[in-house]
Specification:
four-stranded mixed β-sheet; Adenylosuccinate Synthetase, Chain A, domain 1; alpha/beta; Adenylosuccinate Synthetase, Chain A, domain 3; globular; binds 6-O-phosphoryl inosine monophosphate; 3 domains; binds magnesium ion; binds guanosine-5'-diphosphate; Adenylosuccinate Synthetase, subunit A, domain 2; ten-stranded mixed β-sheet
Length: 421
């Protein structure tokens, strides 16, 4: 059986911490999509670690960690991350596995990402510039190079051919930067990558399932950044939702059991695109300051706003969420009153659904006000000690979205999580 942890908003919900928390109950932790655009933060021995490519179960020695076929892999980022992980005494050669079918991010993909974003001017997506979209374009365009290709002697020829194609595109963008240093790093890190466990990921994972092992699939980004169901075109280039687990790992839908959706107690978004509940005032600034809302991958300030129950209910529907995990509840400690969005007013009509496109519409969020708990909660360890006002906030969300919150995270550390009983 396979359980899933994925984001229900626009990413950065705290998935890394939650995966690390649940990892001891699983044998395999598997990333199924995305790439180094992800930044999953966890704390180990009081030290902050941000993982971009490696699954967040890597610090649990009894877990095998798989980078699935649905991931796009930048070997340079991977090598750096493996060095960090090794400095904590973890042997990646023992518990990290990489699918042969995962596509490689080439230096020219990063250059193309940058050139494409620059050409869009003020309409830019706000990409992390990690080469995600060009790499997935080469996958669906049937040009990409895969990890398994590294093991074939024709790899260099294929690389040169694809690089030439990319160069023509870069010339069209009038991209002038010298990327030879990137290429040097790339080839050096490929040698490192070849020494890791490169496997047939779909057999690896299905064999584990047959042996009765427990698998946890770790999502990257969030449901509202999904290529099909997110706020297109301000999305990433993969299926961040549950369907991505099947295609990104090679597991059948009947194997999926729990889908644990992670949401912040409020809402953030980094990069461009619609965000109906965004706050452009002092409250938004306060959320950013208290929540330390700066991107784990790019350092950019995250846009902040109240929780959006229209988007959350939609994400619960698309993913088949069975449990909701609410993070960063402690960030709301400072507020006397909280707002939750329960409708979108568009042209004098109130909707409870996500419109086909949100970019060209003026969406006026309809807020329902709830009392804040306005008391420090970061040190609370038991459900019975949580303030009633927080339980009322949770109860309102449960009823609105139709799925219950099962855990409340009240701080970044491993022990700051409370099961709802
Ligand atoms: P991810 O991409 O979903 O893994 O999330 P990020 O790591 O990008 O961002 C989440 C941030 O919130 C990180 O800095 C975490 O350390 C932090 N965090 C996670 N859970 C909590 C929580 O319950 N309270 C607080 N205050 N911080 C949290
Ligand atoms: P985690 O896994 C938040 C956003 C970017 C941009 C858009 C497209 O840490 O939650 P891309 O580089 O994918 O082409 O960027 O998606 N984005 C994220 N936002 N968290 C992430 O990952 C993100 N990965 C991509 O900011 O708006
Ligand atoms: Mg993140």
């Amino acid at each position: 059986m396979v359980d899933v942890i994925l984001g229900l908003q626009w990413g950065d919900e705290g998935k890394g911490k939650i995966v690390d928390y649940f990892a001891p109950s699983y044998d395999v932790i598997a990333r199924f999509q995305g790439g180094p655009n992800a930044g999953h933060t966890l704390y180990l021995e009081g030290k902050k670690i941000v993982l971009h490519q490696i699954p967040s179960g890597i610090f649990h020695e009894r877990c095998s960690n798989l980078i699935g076929n649905g991931v796009v892999l930048d070997p340079v980022t991977l090598k750096k991350e493996c060095d960090t992980v090794a400095s904590f005494g973890i042997d990646v050669k023992k518990n990290l596995f990489i699918s042969k079918r995962a596509h490689l991010i080439l230096p020219t993909h990063r250059a193309l990402d940058k050139a494409s974003e620059t050409s869009k001017g003020s309409d830019k997506i706000g990409s992390t510039l990690k080469g995600i979209s060009p790499a997935y374009m080469d996958k669906t365009g049937r040009n990409g190079l895969r990890v398994g290709d590294l093991l074939d002697k024709s790899f260099t020829t294929s690389y040169i051919r694809l690089r030439l194609k990319h160069q023509r595109l870069l010339d069209n963008f009038n991209f002038q930067e010298d990327i030879s240093a990137w290429e040097e790093d790339f080839f050096e890190s490929l040698e490192f990558l070849k020494q890791l466990n490169i496997v047939d990921g779909e057999y690896f994972i299905n064999d584990k399932i047959t042996q009765g092992k427990k698998v946890l699939a770790e999502g990257a980004q969030g449901s509202m950044l999904d290529i099909d169901f997110g706020t297109f075109p301000f999305v990433t280039s993969s299926n961040t939702t549950t369907s991505g687990v099947c295609s990104g790992l090679g597991v059948a839908p009947q194997k999926i059991r729990d889908v644990m959706g992670v949401t912040k107690a409020y809402c953030t978004r980094v990069g461009g695109g619609p965000f109906p509940t965004e706050l452009h005032d002092a409250t938004g600034e306060e959320l950013r300051a208290i929540g330390k809302e700066f991107g784990a991958t790019t350092g950019r300030p995250r846009r902040c706003g109240w929780i959006d129950l229209i988007a959350l209910k939609y994400a619960a529907m698309i993913n088949g969420v069975t449990k909701v995990i609410m993070t960063k509840a402690d960030v709301l400690d400072a507020f006397k009153e909280l707002n939750v969005c329960t409708g979108y007013r568009i042209d004098n009509q109130v909707y409870e659904s996500i419109p086909f496109q949100m970019t060209r519409l003026h969406i006026d969020p309809q807020f329902h006000a709830l009392a804040g708990w306005n008391t420090p909660t970061g040190a609370v360890r038991a459900y019975s000690e949580l303030p009633q006002t927080m339980l009322d906030y949770i109860g309102f969300i449960n009823r609105f979205i139709g799925v219950n919150i099962s855990h409340i995270s009240n701080g970044p550390e491993r022990e700051q999580i409370i099961p709802v009983s």
